[in-house]
Amino acid sequence: MLSAQQQVFVQALEDLDIAQVRRLLAEGFDPDFMEPEKGPAVSIWSDGLFKWWEKVCDAYEAGQPLTTEQKVEDLQPHLEILDELIKAKANFYLWDAEECYGPLWDAASAACSPAIQKLLDYKVDPNTKDEEGKTILSSISDLFFDCEFDQIDWSQALPEEKESLELLRSRGAKMSKEIA
Description:
Elements: H1 4-15, H2 18-26, E1 34-35, E2 39-40, H3 41-47, H4 49-61, H5 68-87, H6 103-109, H7 113-121, H8 136-145, H9 159-170
């Protein structure tokens, strides 16, 4: 069972309540805990990126893509919370049995290159493998395009997908077949 403070923290993450997250972490709150239904706090944060990505995709599908400014504005609270978690030295390798890779995979599957960049700058390993031996780069390439990274037809990619995958690659992410 979660403490009252942990419950408040989970709610603040879900509500993108930056002030509450910042206050709790400034008081020394430990973000490395597991919420029984939702997993670790870092995964609750990264799960929120999917709402941002869904909004971006819906706009593309409607033929009215969001402007860069709209995407940046919508993403800002997610990135501010990530900055706070990094400052608090949160464990980005803490995940539950249902998670394959953790927050870096979540950020990549939400095609969120700013979050990917921050996590890579924080030295989160881009070459972790899931139980099937797939790396993040291979998994996300398969998720988006049903093929390996080196087989992607970039003309079929959304700009965010291409930017995210190329960022991973440029920062050392390898395809599963490149890691023995």
